[in-house]
Design a protein that fits this description.
Blueprint (H helix, E strand, L loop, with lengths): L16 E6 L9 H5 L4 E3 L5 E3 L3 E3 L2 H9 L5 E5 L5 E3 L4
Antiparallel strand pairs: 1-4, 1-5, 2-3, 5-6
C-alpha cells in the first residue's frame, strides 16, 4: 500500500529558517495559536499574539497554528528569501 501523499508546499523543510510575524491589526486574541504551538506564541496584556522567537527553525506546530488562526493573522516567510510559507501565494 502506498504512503499518503505529502502535503503540497507544507513549507517545513529540513534546515529551513522562518520569519514569523503576527499582524496585530488582524489578531483577535482567540489564542488558537497557543493551543497549536504553546512554545511558539505568547499573548500580551492586550490579548495580542506574538511569536516567542520571530526567527525560528521550521516547525510543524507553528505552521499548524498559522493555519488554524481564524483571521490568518500569522504570516510565515522563509528567512533570507522572503518566500511565503503561510499564507501561501495564490
Amino acid at each position: 500500500m502506498a504512503a499518503p501523499p505529502a502535503r503540497a508546499n507544507s513549507g517545513v523543510g529540513a534546515g529551513d529558517r522562518w520569519r514569523i510575524d503576527v499582524d496585530r491589526s488582524l489578531c483577535i486574541g482567540s489564542a488558537s495559536c497557543l493551543h497549536h504551538a504553546p512554545d511558539g506564541f505568547r499573548l500580551d496584556t492586550s490579548r495580542q499574539s506574538h511569536p516567542v522567537e520571530p526567527e525560528a527553525n521550521a516547525n510543524e506546530k507553528v505552521l499548524a497554528a498559522a493555519e488554524a488562526c481564524p483571521v490568518e493573522a500569522i504570516v510565515i516567510t522563509l528567512l533570507g528569501s522572503g518566500e511565503p510559507v503561510f499564507p501561501p501565494e495564490e
